[in-house]
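Reopening: DUF2057 domain-containing protein still failing for me.
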Amino acid sequence: MRSLFALAAACLLSACAQQSHVQLYPGSPLSAGQVLTVVVPNELEVQTINGQQLPAANWSFGTADKRLELQPGAYQVSAFYKNGFDIDGGINHEVVRGRSVIFTIDGQGGELWELDFDRPQGLQEAKDFENEFNAWAVNTRTGERYAATAGQRNTSLVNNLLGGSTAVAEQTTVAPLGATPATAPAVQTAPAQQVIAPMPNAATQQTLPHNDATLTTLQQMWQLLSEDSRATFLEWAQQ
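Support: Ran it again with your exact input. Result attached.
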């Protein structure tokens, strides 16, 4: 029985390890020597790669780092620091989101790049990331380190949670900068007189991930609402 449990645990760990590898190029999986791998620490949230939002870039299991597999070439990765801290002896929980930075990567097949930053020693140091965030990308083959450039401040919590986009279709792949993207199949459009305007809430089809960070964030937002706002929200939720 014990050996059976150990075997099941080993299989589970193996599956979890595979979940951290995310293929962001089209077609069948390629060998390690044909792809550019970028390791993203679990504390970094990817906003865009080459201007495209790719929800899969943030898939990870637990606290595992994310390993993004890309076509060789040049990329600009916009990301920001996000991590939770226990406060008041663990009674409460605060999620810190730093300002975004842009990592510049230009890698070849078989190369491994790592995104990194100065790790905060506590909540206050993490909060400093809201104004200034020093980060860099490292080419592990050459040892060269490239400083990230400052991006925008995270002024909208809800915008970050939703990815800041109203597009319904999710991007699953991204091409290197300057590359010609794969030709998409032609889509037949309806005549102008037959176009039906979308419902006002059509852009809200995206859903938030079901995890502790989402729940904590919603709880914090609830605490910020006035009594009138809470009552209005509850009325809307019951519709």
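The radius of gyration is 21 Å. If you still see a failure, please send the error message rather than a screenshot.
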